Amino acid sequence: xxxxxxxxxxxxxxxxxxxxxxxxxxxxxxxxxxxxxxxxxxxxxxxxxxxxxxxxxxxxxxxxxxxxxxxxxxxxxxxxxxxxxxxxxxxxxxxxxxxxxxxxxxxxxxxxxxxxx
Length: 117
Hints:
Strand content: 5-15%
InterPro entries: YeaO-like
Number of helices: 5
Helix content: 25-40%
Organism: Mesorhizobium opportunistum
Protein name: DUF488 domain-containing protein
Largest sheet: 4 strands, parallel
Number of strands: 4
Order of helices and strands: EEHEHHHEH
Strand order of the largest sheet: 1-4-2-3
């Protein structure tokens, strides 16, 4: 299934071509007001478990294992995944995250999971 999906830091200003803006972090990002975030949805339930997030600690050396463990969590989280897939069926979705590392974060892993089907 082809869909329009983008990933970006929540600290970047909203853009007119973002489509539906979905925060996929469990914890609200510091220094961002709910108004400035311009969210369509805060989907906390799709974020990695606290245990997995703390284990990963944004360590690039743990990235491959983090993705594997997060995919397993997503496989068991049908309701949140279905909710996000439903939004993708309505048009472009931008997954938002607060991490500093733009290459190794849950939103990037989630986008990979969704694109893989």
